[in-house]
Design goal:
The protein is of the alpha+beta class. Helices cover 34% and strands 13% of the residues.
Length: 357
Amino acid sequence: MSHRAPGADRLPDLAVPGGELDRLVGEGARTVGAGAVWAVGDADGTLGGGSHGVLGQGRYARLRPGPDTLYDLASLTKVVALWPCAGVLWQSGRLPLDEPLGRWWRPADGHPSAVVTVRQLLAHTAGMLPYTRFEQLYGRDLAAIRSGVVAAPLHRPPGTAVEYTDRAAVLLTHLVEDLGGGPLDELAARWAWRPFGMTDTRYGPLGAALAARTAPTEHEERAGAHLCGVVHDPSARLLGGVSGNAGAFATARDLARFLTALLDPPPGLPWGAPWIEESLREQTGGLAPARGLSWLYAPGTEPAEGTLVHYGFTGTGFWISRRLGRWALLLTNKVHYDRDIRRLTELRNAFRRAVFG
């Protein structure tokens, strides 16, 4: 059952230092056992935010998170990097959403992926295999992995189920780079990050100065240390660190700029209001869970409420509602401690209810 959303006049009061949202995240972060940074805002920018806890164990226990702490975004990369690049190509007429790939993109011709559409890939209804296992199946060569993903059998007929899979984003990365004429990190910086002043957002591996203000993720046996400034996601690491499924790092400050711009797109943006409006509506035809393009309708809400979210495996997440004209973000490095996300899920849901109802 959904809770009534606080009115726009109440949101600044909820977001003041020591206010309801700050207390909620502070208590939740202690329960979750990870540091946390949060912020909420509207089309004019950030209304409030805060940070709690420490960045981790050992030497990281002396460091506290803040709005300039870099986080491994994990699957938020799908929205922050890949989704705007797809929007540029769609708005310029180069990326048809509903034409089967095999009719217009040569690498898909003759393969099982020929029958899927870009809309299905973005909405996770393309029927692709739900697992990656790239190294086991295709080896370590980037071209071989991409060819393997394009040529892989479908898991189910397209359009029959919503099944989240990183394979969709990996195939879309190949497609976007092919049409865009460059690597995804360069396209995302040119089309999304630089126009919004997102000066901290980038793909890794990060240099020493940036890694020093980066939240650590999981302990990696091969490295003999916690990953910090190197992407946690093994598929993205195998793909060289730059992929549409994961790999980007950003700060709460930069993500606030990104989310603000989605509510009030700047003039001249090549993936502006038409793409945002198309993406932030239901694209799954009544199948559950309901999704937009790249975005998920927030668990515990109905599509008519219009609150969308994306999560990252490392502990990141952000929400947006065009209907209410507000956004929120909550960044943690939960995977640094363990992979049990039950308490993080409870915190995320409580935070969403407090901001959006």
